[in-house]
Each structure stands twice: as C-alpha cells, then as structure tokens.
Amino acid sequence: MRNITIPEVKNVTVAVIRENDGTWKVYLINNNDVELQNTLVSSTGYGEKEGEKQKTSTLRHFLETVPPKSTALIEPIDEKVFHLNNEYWVSYYIGREIYDKKFVFVPETICEENLIFIKELEKEGVLHS
Q1: Can you give the CATH number for the domain in which 17 is found?
Q2: Domain limits for position 109
C-alpha cells in the first residue's frame, strides 16, 4: 500500500481587496513561475454572533488555469460576514501533482486596520499570511 503525499503549497495565497467603490473581492494570487491547473476553490463562512451559530452557504469556484505570476478573482464578499471565519480551501494541479491548502481569515481580521498595499493587485487589502 502506498502513502499519498501532498506537496507543500508555496507562492500561492488569498487576498481580500477593498475596491475603489467600497465593495470587497477575494482573489487568488499565484506567485509561482508555472501555471496552476484545474483550480478548485471552496468558500464558506462560519462562527457565532451574539451566542448563535452562523454558517454561510458553501460556494465552489473552478478556475481552469491561473497563469504564472498572476491573480484570479474568486468571488465578491459582503462586509456582513467579516465577523465569521471566512475559509477558502484551494486545490490545484501543477503537472500531475495535486496541491491543497485552507486559508482562513479569522473573525474581524478583514478590516481597515489590517489593510496593506498588495503589489500583485495594485490595491489595498488583507493578505492571508
């Protein structure tokens, strides 16, 4: 029996950007020298507000290819869910190897105080570290 090893995700991350019109959008950033193929992003929000559990719908996004040194829009995000854990589970192929990582923006981290300039998008936002 063979063990399946999933390689470490490197140079791929997620950012939440505040657009000029005040809306927010989530982007995938590929800083690799190779394209990401058959990328699947599953997004969901979960947590509590005033002692009551809350959960958003789970959305799935398919990106056929994400070119090297580029970004791809995943989805818009509403400020009303910033009090939740906002999870983006990203899976993709490079060649025949599959890569997989969860990026979670914990409650209240998508906020004005955490905005930085994200050069790949040439906009301010919150970059997952």
Answers
A1: 2.60.40
A2: 12-127
